[in-house]
Amino acid sequence: MTSVGTPLVRVDGLLKATGTAEYTADIPVDDLTHAVLLQATIACGRIIEIDVSAAEAAPGVVLVLTHVNAPKLPRMRAYAKGGNAQQTVPALQDDRVRFAGETIAMVVAESLQDAQHAATLIRVEYEVQEPAVGLLGDSYAPFKVLGQPPDYHRGNAEHGMETADVTLEQTYRTPVQNHNPMEPHAVIARWEDGDGLTVYETSQGGVHLTRMGLAEALGIPMRKAGSIRVVSKYLGGGFGGKAFIWPRNILPVVAAHLLGRPVKLELTRAQMYTLTGYRSETLQRVQLGASADGKINSIVHESTSTGSDMGEFPEPCAHLTPMLYACPNVKTTHRLVRQNVGVPTFTRAPGEGPGSFAVESALDELASELSLDPLDLRLRNYAETDPEHDRPWSSKGLRECYSEGAERFGWGARKPEPGSMRDGRWLVGYGMATAAYSSQTWPAFARVRIRSDGTVLVRCATADIGTGTYTVMTQVAADALGVSPRNVTFELGDTRHPFAFPPVSSSGARSVGPAVHGAALAARKKVAKLAVKDRDSPLFGANADGLQTTGDGRLALTDDPSRYDTYADVLRRRGIDHVEERKGYGIMPTLHASAPGFVPQPIGRLIRAATRPFAGRYSTYDFGAQFVEVRVDPDLGIVRVSRVVGVYDIGRVLNPRTARNQAVGGITWGIGMALMEKTSTHPRLGKYASPNLSGYLVPTNADVPDIDVHFLDQPDPLVNPLGVKGVGELTVVGMAAAIANAVHHATGRRVRNLPIGPSALLTEHRLSE
């Protein structure tokens, strides 16, 4: 029996559908108090006076924290420097205000209503200063971009431009975009007797790394960080906003310590726009130089994005550019402009999402200049090996993605002239783009226990961020052991479980899967050794390495499946309650003896070590092709996406149902990015004009057409034993560009600033004129 590769329904689906799955804010805790944050109403300045007397006297209030009485906390190390924080400046440490929405007070009360009321009673007097707003200020090079230098070059891009037959130079802009997960950020902190601490978290960033970040923030030595337990069983979406330590993680822990009582903090929807990161605004200049036959010989990609006084996260827009196409001369740069804003952070397909909009739009513009089909231009510049690192791919099915996608979409029916295709009054356009994403393999451990009743318990401290980890890891374990998925229980999200790096960068299946698989095989072998030594077993005297699984929890001789024994019978005869094995995949960090599963190593060291298996040998990326049809109203300038075809090379598909779910979600993100999503900042006040869903458009059912998703399903054995790569973020990449390219094909108007709306399409004349 084989469950891997089948569309198994989510094993946690019934719990979620019936409302019985306990998310962080649902967890019952005795003697609980409730916290509410007060935020700055200016973008830059100082607090002259903050009067909390009325709040402290309000009914139910037990604590009011401001910069006047808050404990001093250390500045955090940035993620780029091996820490676990994006905002490195702790809250409530001085009287400065660095961005609108910065936390300036926290009220803790017996009830949420008491805390909310008391917060309204706090009076603040500011010294207002002019904020720095926008990307037109002085830029500077960030320290690193995803651990890499901010600038890259090979060959001589300037000379390549001078010798090119055709050159193109354009600037593309993307706005601030927000995560908007269904579940708000929440934390419950409870100190136990002594120094023990339990924190229930909406943690996408991995419970172990959250523990490390909390230890750093609280000044607890890493060798004692095992006294902190972090639990995060279910997550209602994260998309990057729940991946790191923020002040909202730390302040409830501090308050709980001061009060000696548990404290719960749940952010409002509006606070999630200002306190948990966002996708940076970007300004990208792209230059392309090509020969008359369409061979690209020079690429320049310069990206400028949001900088903050509170910490750095440069949006890595040019991350893909050096490897995407065969080109001898490439130059990329990343720069930041300091603004009075909160710190940006990872947002689904960080870098590749906005970066692909610029590069893939520029490719389409170059195709027009050369009178080439956009797909033909990409095929002429297909990179057979990784041009950035000069090494082979572990696998690359992009050529197949192009051909399969073009056939499924009907790309051959595309008329090259913009504005030449109609359906009644609607202008019809076809667009396409390349998708690629650098999913990673991170360290992960798993523990598998086979019980004497034939059931299996699998534990790993990873997270299920909505991707279906509970389900696919159940399938992996079931197949390795030859049991039904119904007999497997997978547990995650607890620092009491073996260490796992967070499933960021589409790394969950390709990192945790091999660890679960390895632990299951080791546990199976342990039972096999017991069986072949048991005189009462039909397998007595056989070679333990020569046994196979035949389903229903059986171990059988490979050459004679009629001779078999079951896990349950083997353990019962020996009087053993269970056998257990623990295995890791990726790197093998040294574990702290007093805290099983805890890895007291700097994150930067983990990240550097995790990339070594492929250094100097192979490059591994996820690939895909996006094809889009749009319809544009010529009078109103309204754009509707009417068809999408996405074909992807993601290695082996563990579960077609959950994989398709991720693909459709990513494509929907791309539709929102292209046509709707934008958080606007007041040009003088430096404040978000509408920090809430009421003023932030996201795609709904009416905006999303039927989506044709196809996976090549070609295992990549060089990446890991399961042949799995990643899918969750890949399907965002290229979507915005494909839509913009389709809009240009429909209308003849090239839009280089997102989102694309009527104001960009309707000028002095109707589109039909």
Provide structural commentary.
It is a single chain. The chain is globular, with a radius of gyration of 27 Å. The chain is α+β, with helices and mostly antiparallel strands and 769 residues long. The chain is built from 17 helices and 28 strands. 24% of the residues lie in helices and 23% in strands.
Give the helix proportion (percent range). 10-25%
Query: Which shape, going by the Cα principal axes?
Result: globular
The total count of strands amounts to 28
Count of helical segments? 17
Ends: how far apart?
Answer: 62 Å
Widest beta sheet: strand line-up:
3-5-1-13-10-11-12
Mean pLDDT: 94
Share in β-strands: 15-25%
Give Rg in angstroms: 27 Å
* SS-derived structural category: alpha+beta
**Contiguous runs where pLDDT drops below 50 for at least 5 residues:** 588-600
Q: What does the main sheet amount to? A: 7 strands, mixed
Q: How are the SSEs placed, and which strands pair?
A:
Elements: H1 13-17, E1 33-39, E2 45-51, H2 53-56, E3 61-65, E4 96-97, E5 103-109, H3 112-120, E6 123-128, E7 139-140, E8 151-154, H4 157-162, E9 166-174, E10 186-191, E11 197-201, H5 207-218, E12 228-231, H6 247-259, E13 263-266, E14 282-290, E15 296-308, H7 321-324, E16 330-339, H8 352-370, H9 374-380, H10 398-409, E17 422-423, E18 426-437, E19 444-451, E20 456-459, H11 469-481, E21 488-491, H12 508-532, E22 547-549, E23 554-557, E24 560-566, H13 567-574, E25 578-585, H14 603-610, E26 622-632, E27 639-649, H15 656-675, E28 707-711, H16 735-747, H17 758-761
Helix pairs in contact: 8-16, 11-12, 12-13, 15-16
